[in-house]
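Recap slide: Aminotransferase, sequence and predicted structure.
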Amino acid sequence: MTGSLCERINPVVRDMPPSGIRRFFDLVAETRGVISLGVGEPDFVTPWHIREACIYSLEKGYTMYTSNSGLLELREAIARDLGCSYGVVYDPREEILVTVGVSEGLDLAMRALVCPGDEVIMAEPSYVSYAPAVLLSGGRVVTIPTTMEKGFCLKAHQVERAITPRTKILLLSYPNNPTGAVIDRRTLAEIAEVAVARDLLVISDEIYDKLTYVGEHTCVASLPGMKERTILLNGFSKAYAMTGWRLGYACGPAEIIAAMTKIHQYSILCAPITAQMAALEALRNGRAMMERMVREYNRRRRLVCQAFRDMGLNCFEPGGAFYAFPEIRATGLTSEQFAQQLLLEEKVAVVPGDAFGPGGEGFVRCSYAASLEDISEALKRMAQFVRRLGVK
Ligand code: PLP
């Protein structure tokens, strides 16, 4: 073999930095006795009735492929859920595709829509997978900085200004990871008006919709003129504590769902039937347990935000998801230094804000999807750390 193997790797992949979260967690794995507020994963086990439904399905011999689009019964349940929650009507036969998590839905949507050089507009800071998904599809990422002062929300005039003749997609994500920001209906409606006027496609990742503590979640597709241009992504990982099951769904115009299904049928074939059976049970009978978990996150949310303020740090009030995003500039450290020193000195893991793009610098992401006991101990250690740095 001549030359280095690295030279043969697709340069887009070769030059892509590893996820800032992953990089940090390799460090965490090497340190003993760490309390982690790092992972964006429910600390709850999937409710028993959901696990039981999966076990029964195995007993009954449900071990085969399903249709590429997913079990029709599940797609019907998804359509019912969206209809009841947001009044958006999707045809389960043509407008819904069951995916391997929102992660696959995102990848499929980008691959189905983005042509080389197309621009995708997104807020910054934002979820770590968005920019790579665009780049892997040959697209260009256009970020709009959002600030704590403006509630970490995009504004219509910012979107308008970022549009060029190459803009194809606007990527929205509320409630937001890492900031916990929720967007009010009016602001979202103004953004939607721009999307309609400028004929943009919209990908809306609403994986945290059920984890909304302040106000009500607005489903982007429910706004006037939006259903026909929106690919709505959602899944079971967060709301039903089902991260490991790897199940999500994409809803959108039939032509786009058909294009996504084409890629899916040649790559994944179908989402695992076991997870689909479990998801069906989650939608049929999971609301009470889900609401109980959400109430618990909300209790922790209040505690965590207050604790950061008591430490003398600015802490934006997250209205959704399960992350607090305190500003750590007062400590004089960069977010990377803060996270590293906190890990070394106090054995508490948080994620440096710059893992979510340069706009996250000056902040750290702390997940409160951890037990109250762990959260309390971690906050005590963080308070000591921040005090030593002379804050307050
Ligand atoms: N979208 C956002 C905003 C997330 O925070 C995450 C996981 O942290 C995902 C998507 C991935 O979701 P899934 O587990 O359904 O692939």
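The chain has a mean pLDDT of 95.
The pocket of pyridoxal-5'-phosphate is lined by residues 40, 101-103, 127, 173, 177, 205, 207, 235, 237, 243, 248 (CB under 6 Å).
(End of recap.)
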